[in-house]
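Severity: low
Component: inverse-folding endpoint
Summary: output formatting inconsistent between runs
Steps to reproduce: submit the following structure tokens with default settings.
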């Protein structure tokens, strides 16, 4: 997973990963064999007191391999807030004597992206899942610290495999135990992930050779609240003609039917996009690099910077136009979702983005 600083992080363009074609018993035996050979389970939550008990309660049944990492996954579960897999993240490059395997929790966010939970907060006043590192945002003239949610997005190359395993589930067990067992618990005001999440990112990004476009935004708006002012850095535009790597399908109750998911390279092949096409809305998942380095949380250690208004989901949180009441650009919220009245249709903004218009014209209208 993690390299030294002697060389920049390598890049590789690969097909989307698929679940490994082995039986659940074979997958479980493989993980136990690694532990028998000296690998250590390193939980971050309450299970650190008895890692073996965690493995007995949450046995892996599936596996996905991407680059030099194997993800061992349980059956999908759900609690009152999220659907999730307990995952065991294993570095396949490590020497056996130093092999460490990290239990994590992979969950499907309401934006329909699979993420890793970095920690959790639960008290009489708060109940939420940590979404990785943080960023400073400007809101009504004030600087605020907010979650940089895309830092917790799992690689785009394995999103389809996780969707495949979710669809295979005949029943989804209710489970309120896994979160405190697997995740580190933080105080009510703990937004930032802990050091085991943030330090690999700091190390990778301290070498400027690893920064995408020098750490600057590859897509930005030149005028505030003007979707037509979107501009891409040269080479970082999605390549609709020759860059489509995958078209996958899933279903969404929130979005009213079939969802098509297009993984598309940039023209210079440095980054990749995931376009989501629902019956009504089209939106863009935060783009990712094509780097191969993954942390023990299973996520990339370098970011692709874009103006956040590029990646508004089809339905986004909206309770009004006041400070903190909406995550849709002001004045562009559509009707409230019939399934989730806390979210509004973001199409009035999305459909005015030139890149969404080009995507609809070049791919959707061709029926590809």
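Observed output (run 2 of 3):
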């Amino acid at each position: 997973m993690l390299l030294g600083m002697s060389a920049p992080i390598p890049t590789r363009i690969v097909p989307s990963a698929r679940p490994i074609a082995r039986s659940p018993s074979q997958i479980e035996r493989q993980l136990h064999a690694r532990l028998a050979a000296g690998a250590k389970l390193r939980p971050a939550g309450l299970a650190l007191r008895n890692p073996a008990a965690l493995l007995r309660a949450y046995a892996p049944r599936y596996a996905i391999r991407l680059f030099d990492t194997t993800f061992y996954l349980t059956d999908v579960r759900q609690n009152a807030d999220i659907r999730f897999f307990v995952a065991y993240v294993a570095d396949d490059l490590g020497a056996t004597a130093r092999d460490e395997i990290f239990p994590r929790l992979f969950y499907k966010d309401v934006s329909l992206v699979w993420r890793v939970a970095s920690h959790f907060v639960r008290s009489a006043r708060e109940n939420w899942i940590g979404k990785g590192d943080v960023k400073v945002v400007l809101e009504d003239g004030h600087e605020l610290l907010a979650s940089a949610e895309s830092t917790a997005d799992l690689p785009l190359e394995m999103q389809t495999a996780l969707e495949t395993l979710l669809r295979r589930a005949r029943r989804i067990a209710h489970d309120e135990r896994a979160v405190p067992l697997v995740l580190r618990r933080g105080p009510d005001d703990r937004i930032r992930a802990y050091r085991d999440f943030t330090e690999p990112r700091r190390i990778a990004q301290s070498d400027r050779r690893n920064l995408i476009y020098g750490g600057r935004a590859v897509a930005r708006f030149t005028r505030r609240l003007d979707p037509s002012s979107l501009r891409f850095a040269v080479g970082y535009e999605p390549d609709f003609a020759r860059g489509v790597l995958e078209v996958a399908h899933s279903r969404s109750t929130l979005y009213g039917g079939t969802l098509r998911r297009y993984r598309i390279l940039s023209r210079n092949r440095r980054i990749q996009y995931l376009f989501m096409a629902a019956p009504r809305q089209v939106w863009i998942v935060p783009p990712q690099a094509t780097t191969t380095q993954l942390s023990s949380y299973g996520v990339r250690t370098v970011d692709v910077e874009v103006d956040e208004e590029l990646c508004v989901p089809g339905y986004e949180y909206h309770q009004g136009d006041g400070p903190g009441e909406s995550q849709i650009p002001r004045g562009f919220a559509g009707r409230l979702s019939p399934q989730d009245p806390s979210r509004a249709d973001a199409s009035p903004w999305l459909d005015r983005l030139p890149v969404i218009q080009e995507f609809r014209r070049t791919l959707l209208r061709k029926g590809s």
